[in-house]
Design brief:
Strand 1 and strand 2 form a beta hairpin. By secondary structure, the chain is mostly helical.
Amino acid sequence: MTKLHDDGYTRCSWNTTDSVYLDYHDHEWGRPQYDSQKLFEMLCLEGMQAGLSWITILKRREAYRKAFSSFDPRTVADYSAEKVEQLMGNSAIIRNRLKINAIITNARMFLELEKEQSFSQFLWSFVGGKPIVHYYKESAAVPASSEESLLMSKALKKRGFKFVGGTICYAFMQATGMVNDHETGCFCFREITNGNHLACMEN
C-alpha cells in the first residue's frame, strides 16, 4: 500500500526516503518517454541492474553517462577493445565486462534497427503505441514480466541485443511509462493518468 511521506505526498510503497530515489519516482518512473536515445540509455541501465538493486545503478547514472558518451549510440558503437579496458578501470561504474560489452553491442544493434524504423517506434509498438495503465493497489500485485515484455525481449534478442530478458524489459517498460505501475493511491498515478486520458486495463 502507498505511504504518506513527510512532505505530504502519498507515494508507492516501494519508495524510500532517499532523495535520488524520490526524485526518480516523482519525475521519471512511469512517465511516457518517446526519445529514442533516452530509451536506449534506460534499456542499457536496466541491463546494468541485473543482479543488483536499482538504486545502485541510479546513483551511478551520471557516471554512466560520462563513461558512455551520454549514451549516444553512434559514438558507443565505435568503442574499441582499448576503450573497454579503460571502462573496466572506471571505479565509478559497475565493472562487469559482459555488461560493458553489452552496451556496445546494443549501440550497434540500435543503429541497425534505425535503418528500418526509429528505436522509439519499435519499442512502443509492443504496447500499441500508448501506455498501458494498470490499477494495482499494492506493489506486491505488480508482476515481474508480462506478455508484452516477453515479446519485446524475444524481438530484441532476435536482433542481437544483450541483457534484454523479459524481466529487464518489464522494468524498462515501467521506467519509461509504457506501463503505468504506480500504485493507485500514489499521487503520480493520478498525475500520469489524468494527463494522458488513456484507455485503461483493469487488473
